[in-house]
Amino acid sequence: FFLGFLQGKVALMSAKSMHQLHIFIFVLAVFHVTYCVITMGLGRLKMKKWKKWESQTNSLEYQFAIDPSRFRFTHQTSFVKRHLGSFSSTPGLRWIVAFFRQFFGSVTKVDYLTMRQGFINAHLSQNSKFDFHKYIKRSLEDDFKVVVGISLPLWFVGILVLFLDIHGLGTLIWISFVPLIIVLLVGTKLEMVIMQMAQEIQDRATVIQGAPVVEPSNKYFWFNRPDWVLFFIHLTLFHNAFQMAHFVWTMATPGLKKCFHENIWLSIVEVIVGISLQVLCSYITFPLYALVTQMGSNMKKTIFEEQTMKALMNWRKKAMEKKKVRDADAFLAQMSVDFATPASSRSASPVHLLQDHRARSDDPPSPITVASPPAPEEDIYPVPAAAASRQLLDDPPDRRWMASSSADIADSDFSFSAQR
């Protein structure tokens, strides 16, 4: 029956094709991890000079440059002059200037120190000795955990690329230029963010006091989301690794070379574009992203060092545990107060001030009787009246006098007549 049911049917993927798919996924994983490591290594190599700039913030020259007692025209500051020159001020040419600037001096010393000062003024105290360079390195390491992974949308992009590979169209060749366009667009946008911050400094005031201060904000980024820049970089690295893995896999698999590489020169162009893209993204775009995205409205959790973060998390955990213990103790104390018998005392109520008062009424005063004290409503173990009377007779005279006075007060009529 089962064989009859399968008559005239073929499997979607044969066992051999499944084996080839497993090989391709393995090659893709190797290339993706390798590309991520190269990106991290070249990015940190580019940021080595930033460490030197960070050390110069402790010099007297830098302290004099940011001295609040100094007044300068805004258009004379180095940061504004660099980003708002003759061509940069023209709206139509700003994008062209930003496009070419990412290749030649994408991040200068003036840019680094200005954005560093803006970050400190926005999130820390102005005189803070904060190491901005170490903070950026920790942020990159945290972003590396995201980039090295492969999310579901990226797998969808990879499957879509394979389905679009139609014979005769050369889709894989043209799609290989898409990551390059994305990286160039991201780099241009990051340079535009720096220009916009310089423009806001000039529009804010004609004369500045001390160093020019940028104001971090999410409004500079696409959709007010600085993390979208990381997503595009992640997509670019994955797509580039996908293209290189596909090239190596098809070249090494017998029978696929002639199918996918009819024109070997186009395949070589694809490889050259992939290598150039990797260098551009690793050495230019990724370090630029690491610096400019710190100008968002919120600072990242890597503001604290790893050990400090662990200490804060442990402190928070212990504080929550202590709070739970205090809440439990307070609840038990409240319960004990509610169920405890209240102690009677003469000073607890002003009723004893009326014990010598005689009621002004026509009724004769009620005789003094010895009554047992009523049991409180909250007492779950009430004392019988007879036992209370015997206890009262056994008490000393002074305590019996207090009980008698209380009984007299309880049975007396405290109504007052209006006659004088």
UniProtKB/TrEMBL annotation:
User: Which residues lie within the region annotated Disordered?
Assistant: 348-406
Pfam families cross-referenced by the UniProt entry? Mlo
Give the GO biological process terms.
defense response
| Cytoplasm in keyword set | no
Q: Where is the composition biased (Basic and acidic residues)?
A: 354-363, 392-401
Q: Where in the cell is it found?
A: Membrane
* GO MF annotation terms: calmodulin binding
Q: What keywords sit in the KW lines?
A: Calmodulin-binding, Membrane, Pathogenesis-related protein, Plant defense, Transmembrane, Transmembrane helix
This entry carries the following GO cellular component terms, namely: membrane
Tell me how this protein sits in the membrane: Multi-pass membrane protein
Transmembrane region positions?
A: 20-42, 144-163, 169-187, 228-252, 264-292
Per the record, the domain of life is Eukaryota
Q: What is known of its domains?
A: The C-terminus contains a calmodulin-binding domain, which binds calmodulin in a calcium-dependent fashion.
What does the UniProt record say this protein does?
Answer: May be involved in modulation of pathogen defense and leaf cell death.
Which family is annotated? Answer: Belongs to the MLO family.
User: In its UniProt entry, what is this protein called?
Assistant: MLO-like protein
